[in-house]
Amino acid sequence: MKGYPHWFLRALLGAMLMMLVTGLLLAPGTLVMRAEMDLPWRLPGEARVYTAMLHAAGGFSLAAFTGSLWSLHMRAGWRRRKHRGSGLFVGSLLVLLCMSAVAVYYLGEEQAGTIAALLHLALGIALLGPFGWHWLRGYRSRRHHGPAV
Ligand code: HEM
Ligand code: HEM
Known about the structure:
Blueprint lengths: L7 H26 L11 H35 L4 H24 L3 H35 L4
Helix pairs in contact: 1-2, 1-4, 2-3, 3-4
The site of one protoporphyrin IX containing FE has 24 residues, from helix 2, helix 3 and helix 4.
């Protein structure tokens, strides 16, 4: 990623991975408490609080990463008409994840809060495919043509 510090890509991937792992750890509790599913395992009380804390902190840093990608990476790729579709898809999913996360925070246990939490979980899992697709295509094109700046 040209124009970013050398550690940026690794930090971005680390933040993505942390969101995915902590999100998946929170998921069984969400399905049991919110969707009333009967599952054999979920994170016990205190562990869930710490995991949610890590997840929310990681979310803030991922939002900051997305902001810095917007000002350089996305605009450079957009100008060069490269990987627009997959990049836009990933960027939009991240924005929707942030919006649904705010709804999870503030709508509480109400039905609307449950809908937001399930939507947030579905968006989080849906992010995997487009992000993997964009990353692979971006990685390959960078190796062949160099970065888009
Ligand atoms: C940009 C990415 C993301 C942001 C900003 C974000 C942010 C948040 C925030 C702030 C919460 C509330 C934490 C709390 O309950 O105290 C939350 C909850 C949650 N997130 Fe995410 N998240 C993101 C990605 C993901 C991903 C990738 C997954 C799943 C693979 C996921 C699954 C969950 C689940 C299951 C909950 C618990 C919902 C509940 O029952 O209250 N999130 N997220
Ligand atoms: C309009 C939106 C976007 C466009 C047009 C775009 C375009 C591109 C292009 C052209 C590349 C090829 C390599 C390079 O030039 O650096 C690339 C790579 C990449 N993009 Fe995007 N991108 C967008 C959004 C995003 C978002 C939102 C993320 C992550 C949150 C992201 C993560 C990556 C990653 C991880 C690579 C691989 C970098 C590497 O291996 O060096 N992109 N993108």
